[in-house]
Write a structure and sequence with these properties.
Elements (H helix, E strand, L loop, with lengths): L1 E12 L2 E11 L3 E5 L6 H9 L4 E8 L2 E5 L2 E2 L8 E4 L11 H11 L4 H14 L15 H13 L5 E5 L7 H18 L2 E6 L11 E6 L2 E7 L1
Parallel strand pairs: 3-9, 3-10, 7-8, 8-9
Antiparallel strand pairs: 1-2, 1-4, 4-5, 5-6, 10-11
Helix pairs in contact: 2-3, 2-4
Length: 222
């Protein structure tokens, strides 16, 4: 089954319309979308998540119509999508515990299970004992792992990654890539990952899609 299917999708950004996009992502695939800055990579992710309204075209998620033109048939909060934003986008006034707990609460996790679930998620990303840490006290790698734990708190079937390795040095990039690969296998995730660096995640990606000037130009298997 396709996890994601974009058909003739155009997205309007102010006075500009980008697209059309046509993209199929199979369940449990890790698809890397590469292209220069401003090519439309992040817009594709935002369209999938329901954060960028479509001007035309359709989006199906796991065989169900999620968006048809400007009409959203599945609201963004009901799509079971984890989104790791560029730079992590942690809330600066919240501890690690509160970052994850906030998402768990909105995902409907019972209050008596949130503490255990929070500690479990921190263990998954190798941040045990970090529950009370504030974002300003974390290294770049720690902050990205916390952001990943927060993205996984919704128990997603689909994980969207927006330049997740950009602020990290090479050693930390390798460590986070290894963790992403491990969690994808453990949780059975489908991953759509955008970057401007073609070799960034080639080792764990199953397919590379190239985009330029708002159009998908081609793809290759890894």
């Amino acid at each position: 089954m396709n996890a994601v299917q974009l058909v003739d999708v155009r997205v309007r950004l102010g006075a500009t319309t980008i697209g059309p996009f046509a993209l199929d992502v199979r369940e449990r695939e890790h698809v890397l979308i590469v292209g220069p800055s401003g090519s439309g990579k992040t817009t594709v992710l935002r369209a999938i998540a329901g954060l960028a309204p479509l001007a035309s075209g359709t989006l199906d998620l796991f065989g169900e119509r999620a968006t048809e033109g400007p009409r959203q048939r599945i609201a963004p909060e009901r799509r079971r999508i984890g989104f790791l934003f560029q730079g992590g986008a942690l809330w600066p006034h919240m501890s690690a515990r509160k970052q994850i707990g906030f998402v768990l609460a909105h995902a409907g996790c019972p209050s008596d299970q949130r503490e255990q679930r929070t500690l479990e998620l921190l263990e998954w990303v190798e941040l045990p004992g970090f529950a009370e840490r504030m974002p300003a006290t974390l290294s770049g790698g720690e902050a990205q792992r916390l952001a990943l734990a927060r993205a996984l708190a919704v128990e997603p079937k689909l994980l969207l990654l927006d330049e997740p390795l950009g602020p990290l040095d090479f050693e930390l990039r390798d460590a986070l890539l290894a963790k992403l690969g491990e969690l994808q296998q453990r949780l059975g995730l489908t991953v759509v990952h955008v970057t401007h660096a073609p070799n960034e995640a080639r080792a764990i990606a199953s397919r590379i899609v190239r985009i330029r000037a708002g159009r998908i130009e081609g793809e290759e298997r890894t």
